[in-house]
Amino acid sequence: MEIDLPEIVAEVREAFALYEKALVSNDVPALNALFRDDPRTVRYGGAEILYGHAEIKAFRAARSPVALGRTLSRTVITTFGREFAVASTLYVRPSALGKTGRQMQTWVKFAEGWRVVAAHVSLIDKVK
Amino acid sequence: MAQDLSWATSAEIARAVASGASRALDVVDDALARIEEHNPTLNAFTAITADRARAKACAIDATRDKAQLPLAGVPFAVKNLFDIEGLATVAGSKINRAHPPAKKDSPLIERLEAAGAVLLGALNMGEYAYDFTGENIHDGPSRNPHDVSRMTGGSSGGSGSAVAGGLVPLALGSDTNGSIRVPASLCGIFGLKPTYGRLTRAHSFPFVASLDHVGPLARSARDLALSYDAMQGFDAEDGASLDRPFEPATPQLERGLDGLRIAVAGGYFKKGAFPEALAALERVAKAVGARNEIDIPEAARARAAAYVITVTEGAALHLERLRKQANDFDPAVRDRLIAGAMVPSTLVVQAQKFRRWYRARVLELFKSCDAILAPATPCTAPEIGQQNFTLDGVELPVRANLGLYTQPISFIGLPVAAVPVALAPLPIGVQIIAAPWREDVALRIAHALEQMGAGAAPKPNL
Lower CB density within 10 Å: C or N end of chain B? Predict the structure, then answer.
């Protein structure tokens, strides 16, 4: 098992950046495309428990587009082999400065490209 | 515990009520509670018909065959220019408050209620519908649920606010130059302006008889189709109503985009747009695979002609009131109407003559396409009170120019579905313009966009 092959890390970084751009601009079709279209895809959100791509898609469609902007920090992307990666990041939203957001995603490379198969997002009081 | 229907669509509510999973009375009580909680902020409702609504809900709960009611237990409200029995039809004005109460409901209210819907009240609007902002000097502005410091757009501002804010899933508005499509765009909801002559305007307060349309606003394309289907039908009381066969749109919704040729309006419809309007248009065009750009000829002239007809017919309608009660008007409305009373008749005749020419040219475009995409508004919701914005380098008044892209379309009565794109931070709409009497095509595309996630009414953080 080769960890952090540079060209693989570059691929995941690109997919991760696409996701971030789609998220802050609420580009729902792009967000839907980056999560694997499969009933086994899971997303635990700040206030949501979403099992399957259909539930995730419904959440995206109804989400308020207000105040989605955020700043990332301490982003760690680690790849394992050529088809598996974990991306972890902290974030702060200008609309919730007292809180630290945490996001973890599991990425897998399929024929159609890199897709998130599991994600967990949560907010806690700001870590000093 | 009963299902939470606070953000449900009309279709979901009707299903829950028809199946017995929810009671119409509970749905109505919940909606009345939301109105009580949020209307002081949103200022969407100007009258609430709670007793009538509860009585109607009880009647629906007592109905044996609720599955026959496509809108069973669906709460709705109407722009306050529709007649509601027992209330004066104020049309956003101070002057009409002295009118006697309406003797009967508008036929559109009757038709929606016959389908099981429940009227909850009347909604705020720009005075006499001569408005694109949703501001009202007498009742205060309706507020945008996504940011309450911002405009709803108008003139059906209360309709936009009530639906986007989750107070009701369905509202009626009117659209002379864009008054359904503009608030749908700024509030991030779906709106349908049907073909001129399709839905009856009888027992509603007019503005410009030769351009006035009425139609629904909702949070899904299916809800537009369900309510539109329930409201179709000839009415001899509206001189413009056409005796068309019943052409239901709901059965067409699931047909998807197969076989539809969809083009994007270029030229005039891309000029002056803020980046967000073009971004939304691009998302929709990409989702439906629309690559061809077509030119709607003389659109700027069409808008100018729409202005001339609007201001002169509006002035003729209000002339006696302008003479006797000028100070009771909103000054922003009054001064434009007074100006309209002085427009030379030669201009009006020329505008009508041009209208026939323009209509024939635009209809030719539909030989090579089934629908045309265009922005609904040049920008997302401006701040309440904002007077000017800059379009294509020129500073212009907001009030008159939010309808830049809607006016050339309603001018010749084409059906349009406004589809919301939930851009961050604020949503904005795209017009799906179809050939006359092809509301089904516009709604099919709107529904397909919703299925793809490209069009959606986002839920505000209220």
Answer: N
